[in-house]
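Task card 7
Instruction: Convert sequence to structure tokens.
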Amino acid sequence: MFSESVTLVNAVFAIAFLVGGIVVGFAVERIIFSRLRRFAKKTQWKGDEVIIDAMRGAPILCFGILGFYSALAYLPLTPAIEILSQKVLLVIIIFSVTLVIARLAVGFIQLQSSKTAGALPSASLFINVTRIVVFAIGILIILQSLGLSITPLITALGIGGLAVALALQPTLSNLFAGIQIIISKQLEPGDYVELDSGEKGYVTDISWRNTTIRELPNNLIVVPNAKLADSIVKNFNRPQKEMSVLIDVGVSYDSNLEKVEQVTLDVAKKVVQELQEGKSEYEPLLRYKKFADFSINFTVIFRVHEYVDKYRAQHEFIKRLHKRYKQEGIEIPFPIRTVHVKQMNEKE
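Output:
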């Protein structure tokens, strides 16, 4: 292993450089980088936080490699061991750079999707694909740096990839369907959706195989991406979150319709103004629509911030409207059907 015996002085210097490099790396990480993190949190641009977070652990590794390389100079190694040591250091350096680039790519994807409307969502599928691509390129660079030809490997991967694609056709169809869902931007994590099969809930994640939807009772629905791409999906967050709430009401034929409209709209206005779920900047509407069997029917329309807000808004509106109608003497009739019986005189 060693070309000649190692003296005590050489060993001490080698250990000192190795330990010293690691200690300096820890000092830079704990002192300088911690201050940079605090400074980055005060700036408006969030990209500096992504960069500093991607560099975590890098000072320790860099100074540790530098200390190890300096220690090799004090060790009388054989040419073969020296070449092997240099190759190991090269692999560690390339892998470290690859890791930092992967962190940067994922961090900026998440940053862009969180601050820009319509950007690619921070779904696990897109993040994992980005990581795989970066690490695959890094591994190819490592193999090329070690003197290994990657051309046969790429050729073998191409032939093997065709066989794998045929064997894993359902899995790949889910993968590409997930990518299509993300790129189309019609469905993103955080959206409230309803499937054509009737399930409703918030999209929590789009993975390489499934899309996960959380129902309001906190149950999870797992839908294969290929099936979701072929389904009819109603997205309540597109083109905007806020939505109209339509509530059907019926009053007696004896009611004063002008008074009914005034009272009903007054209740609706108070609901949207007093509840945080209501959109007070939109005036509620009332539209009469039908002479029904036992009532005159109409629809009250007001707006809320998002789909789930309609439940409390409906609850409060119906409760307050019922109370107000009683105070104003407006009747909400029960279902009534009048039956006329025609009597005929029997002939003797």
